Amino acid sequence: MKIFRNFMIIMIIALLVFIVINQMSSSPEEVVREAKPHFDEEEEIIEPKGTAAELPQMNLEGDLYQWIGKTSTELTEDLGEPDRIDVSAYNYEWYVYNNSESQYGQFAVADDEIISVYAIGDDLDMSPIDSGADYDEVADTFSFSNEVTYSKGGASFTFRLSTEDLQTRPLVKISDTTFIQFYFDTITETLSSIRMTTGDALLSQRPYEIEYRGELPEQPVFGEEAWREIQEGMEKQVFDISNVMRYQHDLPQLEWDDQVSLVAYDHSKDMYENDYFSHDSLNGDGLKERLEEKQVAYVAAGENIAAQYPDAPAAMEGWLNSQSHREALLSDEYSYLGVGVYRFYYTQNFLGKPF
């Protein structure tokens, strides 16, 4: 009996040793990195202002911070019916408020819940900072880091920000599930616009490089008709935000031009379908030839193009921070604007027309 008992003890010890060795030899959980989209823009450089804790302890009193998690009914009861509702490329709808020259807002609604808010303009209610605040002031208030984390279920995600990201669109985590993207005008070193977003909405857009354990959510797939609606919404958003940016720089508002929009759309589609990124088409035609082909009369014309930005607000902030694109966007030579978006290729055509 004693021999049997000793045998059992030896067997148990051997089993425990086997389990420990097996666990030690198992492969660690896979860490995957996904690069952010490539941005074809040159940007002015300003120095990032330090790193700090991800969860700032502060009282975010401004109304802008309170919308995440609220319903569309609460939104319309407070702000009224939206001026329009745009379809997005991320399975949510944008409730767009654009009835003011000085302010503009988009509220992303999914399953009747607000999951993201983009706002630009004067006198936005975002205490403890103000619209147009200096970079240093916002960095001192919120503190920027080059790594921001988000966890959901058994998955974990780390957004890795480059030096350029910290300069132009730093990301701040204000709760376990809510983040703020600050968009800066690097020419004036002031706050241009702000985006509140849930972690899930951020994962769907993926504006930063991501390191993650687990699985990324699948990207939605759309047919041609659905894409047409998405693109039309982005075109209108580019137009609206362009005029708010011009208002902030004391410039006259641009008028929408359908014919010029077709020229812009054809160029965006051509770049996507033929896999290039240039103001010159593969046949050598530039904006001048494209306008002449559509018999568009003008005395001055300019063009901005962008590719692979996740949505219209992001593309607009990219143009604002590129000196040559900024000059077209904020020129007093132009009175009309045509916008064409195909997938994630964006084209703006500015026009001054003969009287």
TrEMBL record:
Residues 243-348 form the SCP domain. Pfam families: CAP, CAP_assoc_N. Residues 68-208 form the CAP-associated domain. This is CAP domain-containing protein. It comes from Oceanobacillus locisalsi. The lineage of its organism: Bacteria, Bacillati, Bacillota, Bacilli, Bacillales.
